[in-house]
Design brief:
Shape: elongated
Radius of gyration: 27 Å
Mean pLDDT: 91
Structural class: alpha/beta
Number of strands: 31
Strand content: 15-25%
Distance between the termini: 58 Å
Largest sheet: 9 strands, mixed
Helix content: 25-40%
Oligomer: single chain
Number of helices: 17
Length: about 600
């Protein structure tokens, strides 16, 4: 299937941005020049459209330049009604040409395009719109973007117009039939460029210039467009030892909570504490792998240890952290997911390369910005499962409880980003707030899979099917878990982003067995076939080119020991007395340097 974008003279900027969005979604686009002529305009357009399934983009500005009269516009509508085309009518404004266009293409069912009403106007998606709007169905949030958004004036009592979303009380996104053609009307004036830097701006700032267009395109193009493989979630609790109590958190309370509210809690475990786990708590984890797990949380958790820029120092720290967790596993039988949660949210670009060289599967952080290096993330980066800006090593973003609202959850899942929640022991002062956000996630996505972090990142990839039936997988984690749920053998191509700064030593394994691969400047690719019902784990391994120090030195180790014990005193005893806690933090601050 192809997206056909007509233009007169040169493609309009808003259409060019729509093309870039479509290409980002894996959609094949054709830019179609229109010749100005006095007759047979509609027939000439239909003859020029490529054979096969097509979605035609209709921009009122293009038609204004191409069709000199209303009679020719009606002629075009009549010609389109005899086709089985899909149409996306966008770039609408509250002007005369937009009004004539929507009225003609809807056979008068939509009478005009109007400005959004004044006041606090919100978006609201129809309850039965999940086939188009996916997880946004039945959600309401705002405010709307009055500078960009418009609404459709639907004729009173008109039941043949399907309203998918409204702004205030009037349709913003709607569809109808014109003969055999299916038409989507999107009352957004603009399309935001996929490479626009949006940073940490609220979703409502750019939602209407980006997400509804993606909804329609993914609905129309179906499995031929990139879409998430699954929807995953986890709650990550930073710092606790595996002992009966840590600060406000009691493990029996956590256990009861995960069972009652059906979620998975991962403890971001500090490797420094590898010899200090209580057997009873380890047993609790071993008996409840569906609900409880651990992952890496730095090495000693000393200040901004993973914000260091010395690759030899970072390499040594990660070697020590890995050795500690291997010892912990040998002693307790409890596995630690090879996913790094950055202590205090601090990391450097150099740390990303070192983590990749140690074959961590991914990392997780609340911010996508390296310490001391502010960057503005783009829509392209936010609209995929993980950030790949740094050494092409996947950074999955997590959110605090107050920032995890229904529309944020829907946005994450719509683009394949797992819903990862950050918490600390003090969240258990008010455990009902954690329970509420878990319930909120389960309400927005009833079929969501709660997983340990390894399971989350391994299953957070994008996929689409090419016209020849090949399943194409775009991997983000260093390890991917793929299965064939069909009844026939399935050909798969899988690709990881390539990092030419680390050219040597890449190897791809399928279920721990090396398999052939090919690479270029952009990606490393494999081609495999899976039998019906079969699944495999695919891993991209990287050799380690970084130097190693002889050790971290006595002074650093002593500071780490003292810092960890002071932190535990703070969390276990002082956290319930704010004044004493403030003094303790002041005393601890020099140890963070």
């Amino acid at each position: 299937m192809k997206l056909v974008v007509p233009y007169v003279g040169r493609i309009q900027p808003v259409d060019a941005r729509l093309v870039r969005l479509a290409e980002f979604l894996g959609i094949d686009c054709v830019e179609l020049p229109l010749e100005r002529q006095s007759s047979n305009l509609a027939e000439s357009l239909l003859r020029a459209i490529p054979q096969g399934p097509v979605c035609l983009v209709v921009n009122p500005g293009v038609l204004r330049d191409w069709l000199p009269s209303d009679a020719l516009l009606k002629e075009l509508a009549e010609a389109l009604s005899r086709t089985s085309l899909k149409l996306l009518v966008h770039a609408l404004d509250s002007d005369e040409i937009s009004a004539r266009l929507v009225a003609t293409l809807s056979a008068g069912r939509i009478e005009s395009v109007q400005p959004v009403g004044s006041g606090d106007v919100a978006y609201r998606f129809a309850r039965d719109s999940a086939d188009v709007c996916e997880r946004f169905a039945d959600l309401s949030f705002g405010p709307a973007n009055g500078a960009n958004d418009r609404v459709l004036a639907v004729r009173a009592g008109e039941a043949s117009v399907r309203v998918l979303a409204v702004c205030g009380e009037q349709p913003f996104l709607a569809s109808t039939k014109l003969g055999q053609a299916e038409i989507f009307f999107l009352a957004s004036r603009d399309v935001l460029d996929i490479d626009t830097a949006v940073g940490e701006a609220p979703l409502t700032d750019y939602f209407s210039r980006f997400v509804p267009h993606t909804m329609v395109l993914r609905h129309v193009f179906g499995a031929e467009s990139w879409r998430p493989s699954s929807q995953r979630a986890a709650v990550i609790i930073d710092d606790p030892l595996l002992r009966r109590r840590y600060g406000h958190m009691h493990y029996d309370t956590l256990h009861r909570l995960v069972k009652q509210h059906n979620f998975h809690a991962t403890i971001a475990f500090i490797p420094h504490n590898f010899r200090r786990s209580a057997p009873s708590i380890v047993k609790l984890f071993l008996e409840n792998p569906k609900h409880l797990s651990i992952c890496f949380h730095g090495n000693d958790h000393t200040g901004a240890e993973l914000a260091a820029k010395d690759s030899a120092l970072l390499n040594t720290m990660m070697q020590i952290a890995g050795n500690r967790m291997q010892t912990h596993h040998a002693k307790t039988g409890l596995s630690c997911d090879r996913v790094m949660v950055f202590p205090q949210g601090n990391f450097s670009v150099e740390a990303m390369g070192v983590l990749k060289a140690h074959n961590f599967e991914a990392c997780v952080n609340t911010s996508g910005q390296p310490t001391g290096q502010p960057v503005a993330l783009t829509l392209r980066e936010l609209a995929q499962p993980a950030l790949l800006r740094y050494a092409n090593f996947p950074l999955f973003l997590r959110s605090k409880i107050p920032q995890t609202q229904r529309h944020n959850i829907a946005f994450n899942l719509f683009f394949g980003r797992p819903v990862l929640i950050v918490a600390h022991h003090d969240a258990f002062e008010r455990p009902q707030e954690l329970a509420e956000v878990v319930d909120r996630i389960n309400e927005v996505a009833p079929g969501i899979v709660w997983n340990n972090l390894s399971g989350v990142v391994r299953n957070s990839f994008l996929e689409r099917y090419s016209p020849d039936g090949i399943r194409r997988i775009r991997a983000f984690s260093g390890v991917v878990q793929a299965a064939n749920s069909g009844t026939a053998r399935q050909a798969i191509t899988m690709e990881w982003p390539n990092d030419e700064s680390m050219p040597a030593g890449k190897e791809i394994l399928q279920d721990l067995v090396p398999i052939p691969s090919e690479s270029n400047a952009d990606c490393v690719r494999i081609a495999v076939t899976l039998d019906p019902g079969a699944g495999s784990v695919f891993s991209m391994l990287q050799s380690n080119p970084y130097p190693m120090l002889e050790g971290l030195g006595f002074r650093r180790q002593a500071k780490a020991f003292v810092r960890r014990r002071l932190s535990e005193v703070r969390d276990n005893y002082l956290s319930q007395n704010p004044r004493v806690l403030a003094v303790a933090k002041a005393l601890q601050r020099p140890l963070s340097a």
